[in-house]
Amino acid sequence: MVNASLAYEILLYINSFYFGLFATCELGTLILKSVLIIEKYDIEKNPTKLGQDYGVLVGLFIIEAARLTLGRRGSLSERDKPVMFSVPLTLPSIVGVLYLLIWQEVVLRIEYIWCTLMLSLQMLEFMFAVMFIATMCKDPSYD
């Protein structure tokens, strides 16, 4: 049997470092795209596309930081309530990463790699969080 608490904590620990790298790289890439690609995609005529990208990125940063904080707090203290609040935050976070991966106006190849790694970490965390909550809600058996 897999220790869901340990696996979930390891994934959260890895994702806390990867999220910092992901946030820095995505912000730098978006700034680079907004400076270099303005002429090609007529962003000056329609600046809402660029504003929407920045809005999704800032929202993703806030949601992901809250999700990781709640998940770490619940996992380290072996309580299920913070983890239960962390699990629903995974869905908007996944949608934000999917926006950066699919629906953004210009997506670079390196962004495919960053976003795919982020999505795989989020999916694994979601799976182990559900397993952790299920084991915490069960009555203990003393066999």
From TrEMBL:
Instruction: Write out the entry's keywords from A to Z.
Output: Membrane, Transmembrane, Transmembrane helix
**Sequence intervals crossing the membrane:** 12-32, 53-70, 82-102, 114-134
Q: How does it sit in the membrane?
A: Multi-pass membrane protein
InterPro entries in alphabetical order: Uncharacterised_TM-17
Q: Show the coiled coil region(s).
A: none
The UniProt entry, under Pfam families, shows: Transmemb_17
KW NADP (keyword) present? no
A single GO BP annotation from the record? Answer: non-motile cilium assembly
- Location(s) in or outside the cell: Membrane
* Region forming the signal peptide: none
Identify one Gene Ontology CC term for this UniProt entry.
membrane
Protein name as it appears in the record: Transmembrane protein 216
Tell me what organism the protein belongs to. Diatraea saccharalis
